[in-house]
């Protein structure tokens, strides 16, 4: 499969800074970093967007991936995403947001195109800046907070010790899902991974 239609923009959503690195909210960054390693790309500061960007191809002569980690905080992710999409002439249908998802159990992965943001401020900012909700989302389940913990505090806390035992495997699987969306499409990826 060639990239005649141009590159794909894969957005790992998260917050910049060492203090956020292990947070549930930063799982998008983790997946983007793994994808960069897979395609031989290195993240560096982009000259036109407030983001770190890495580029590479899936396989020999395969589709081009532009991987980004916005350097604004989560709530302002949309501006850099829209700027980079415009810079690389990537239509919204070839933008993939990888993000944490409270509404599905820990480690479950779901793919969809369009739809609501489920209270996720990173997605809300992206939808506003892109002027559409019709982009792909790879949703990484983090589950609901225990007891009465505030969801805002929960997403900004680190994965538990038990969760961390599986985290590397799950991030790897999420990267597989992104690659599948690029090479196979959304529906075949849903068929392949939603039963798992």
Automatic annotation (TrEMBL):
Enzyme class: hydrolase
Top-level taxon in the UniProt lineage: Bacteria
SUPFAM superfamilies (UniProt xref): Peptidyl-tRNA hydrolase-like
Record-annotated membrane-spanning stretches: none
Chain positions of site Discriminates between blocked and unblocked aminoacyl-tRNA: 15
Site (Stabilizes the basic form of H active site to accept a proton): 100
Active site positions, chain numbering: 25 (proton acceptor)
Gene3D superfamilies: Peptidyl-tRNA hydrolase (3.40.50.1470)
EC number(s) given by UniProt: 3.1.1.29
Catalytic activity: an N-acyl-L-alpha-aminoacyl-tRNA + H2O = an N-acyl-L-amino acid + a tRNA + H(+)
GO molecular function, one term: peptidyl-tRNA hydrolase activity
Pfam families named among the record's database cross-references: Pept_tRNA_hydro
Binding site for tRNA: 20, 73, 75, 121
Keywords on record: Cytoplasm, Hydrolase, RNA-binding, tRNA-binding
Keyword tRNA-binding: yes
PANTHER family, per database record: PEPTIDYL-TRNA HYDROLASE
Function per UniProt: Catalyzes the release of premature peptidyl moieties from peptidyl-tRNA molecules trapped in stalled 50S ribosomal subunits, and thus maintains levels of free tRNAs and 50S ribosomes.
Protein family: Belongs to the PTH family.
Binding partners and assembly: Monomer.
Record's protein name: Peptidyl-tRNA hydrolase
Organism of derivation: Micromonospora harpali
């Amino acid at each position: 499969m060639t990239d005649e239609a141009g590159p794909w923009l894969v957005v790992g959503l998260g917050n910049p800074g060492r203090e956020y690195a292990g947070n549930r909210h930063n799982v998008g960054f983790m997946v983007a970093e793994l994808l960069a390693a897979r395609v031989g790309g290195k993240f560096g500061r982009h000259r036109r967007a407030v983001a770190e960007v890495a580029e590479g191809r899936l396989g020999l002569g395969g589709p081009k991936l532009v991987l980004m980690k916005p350097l604004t905080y989560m709530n302002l992710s949309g501006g850099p995403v829209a700027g980079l999409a415009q810079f690389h002439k990537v239509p919204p249908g070839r933008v993939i947001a990888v993000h944490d998802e409270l509404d599905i159990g820990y480690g479950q992965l779901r793919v969809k195109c369009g739809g609501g943001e489920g209270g996720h401020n990173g997605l809300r900012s992206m939808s506003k800046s892109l002027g559409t909700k019709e982009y792909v989302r790879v949703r990484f389940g983090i589950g609901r907070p225990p007891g009465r913990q505030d969801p805002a505090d929960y997403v900004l806390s680190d994965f538990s010790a038990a969760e961390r035992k599986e985290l590397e495997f799950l991030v790897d699987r999420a990267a597989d899902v992104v690659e599948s969306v690029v090479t196979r499409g959304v529906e075949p990826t849903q068929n392949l991974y939603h039963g798992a």
